[in-house]
Amino acid sequence: MMLRAGLIVVFSAIFCCAATASVRIKDITSLQDVRDNQLVGYGLVVGLQGSGDTLRNSTFTEQTMQSMLDRMGINVRSFALRTRNVAAVLVTADLPPFIQPGTRMDVTVSSLGDATSLYGGTLILTSLTGVDGQTYAIAQGQVAVAGFAVQGQAETITQNVATAGRIANGALVEREAPGHLRDIGPLALVLKNPDFNTAVQIAEVINKFSMRRFRLRVAQDRDLNSVALVRPPGISTARFMAEIGDLMVDPDAPARVVIDARSGTIVIGQDVQISTVAVTHGNLNVRIVETPEVSQPAPFSNGRTVVVPRTEIDTNQQGGHIGIVKGASLRELVAGLNRIGLKPMGVIAILQAIKSAGALHADIVIQ
């Protein structure tokens, strides 16, 4: 058995970018009060190959199946159902804004009972309702599952999640969500990544365009989250948003380091800087070997055969290299960390230590 004390990690990747690229305004903002509406429904998935709910454990599945068969004119109330080909599921979907009846959209199907897999199942007609209790879509179709679960007498193999899947274009919109584009009050762009500098840039770019196009200023930066707009006369809201949506800006972002300790992934923002620091890195290896021996008593000694534990412990501490790291830019920072020869968790631990020392000028986000 090996125990490692110190900095241990499997380094997945360090992502960086050379420079901030220009992006369209519509890619980093959204129109205020224009959003998706979440829908949910309860239904049955049938056609499973013995991987459905156990009806005695999932009584709601049995009750739902009996009610469905009753509506079809089949009375099974007095029979004990034993099928394992049916599973109770929750169906969820996002209703896009201003979507028209007759449009199709994707839905997600998730098992509610003790089913082991939804592979090969078909969702039966299910109503999807909103928070107001109204039915906005009807879902039905073949469930596509990305994972699988195979079980034998002594071993089980599972990949991804077999109890959840999607139905592409599986829902048919029956009712339009309340509200129209023309009913929206004062127009405003909401930033997906709030930042004062980005909001100011968006307002300046829009005003520069509107002065040429409409001979007036139509944008005003309100705060780090939003930019207020005034629709010029003689143009519809849809055309106005289409024209300003294609304008290009250079979004700014705070210096940030994102760490995923589970996978060893580190994402370092372009503006992250480190003051001059000296860093050392070393590992302590502890090796424990168990070699039990059998103690056999002499003949006619009335003794017992016992197992005698024998343990060997060996320690080895590798020499740690000390290096000077100074990150005036992202490129120099990554090069300095690579020169020390760090492995993934070592980079994570050292970045946290440098932040504690006050030399890392960025926010650390740990996921």
TrEMBL record:
Q: InterPro entries from the xrefs?
A: Flag_FlgI (IPR001782)
Is Metal-binding among this UniProt entry's keywords?
A: no
Q: Where is the signal peptide?
A: 1-21
The entry's localization annotation reads: Periplasm; Bacterial flagellum basal body
Tell me which UniProt keywords the record has, alphabetically: Bacterial flagellum, Cell projection, Cilium, Flagellum, Periplasm, Signal
Q: Report the transmembrane regions from the record.
A: none
GO cellular component entries: bacterial-type flagellum basal body, distal rod, P ring; outer membrane-bounded periplasmic space
Q: Output the Pfam families linked to this UniProt entry.
A: FlgI (PF02119)
A GO BP term here is:
bacterial-type flagellum-dependent cell motility
Molecular function terms, GO-annotated: structural molecule activity
Recorded hits in HAMAP family, A to Z, give: FlgI (MF_00416)
**NCBIfam families from the xrefs?**
PRK05303.1, PRK12789.1
What's this protein's family per the entry?
Belongs to the FlgI family.
| Subunit annotation | The basal body constitutes a major portion of the flagellar organelle and consists of four rings (L,P,S, and M) mounted on a central rod.
Write out the function statement from the record.
Assembles around the rod to form the L-ring and probably protects the motor/basal body from shearing forces during rotation.
Spell out the protein name for this chain: Flagellar P-ring protein
- Organism, per UniProt? Methylocella silvestris (strain DSM 15510 / CIP 108128 / LMG 27833 / NCIMB 13906 / BL2)
Question: What gene is this protein translated from?
Answer: flgI
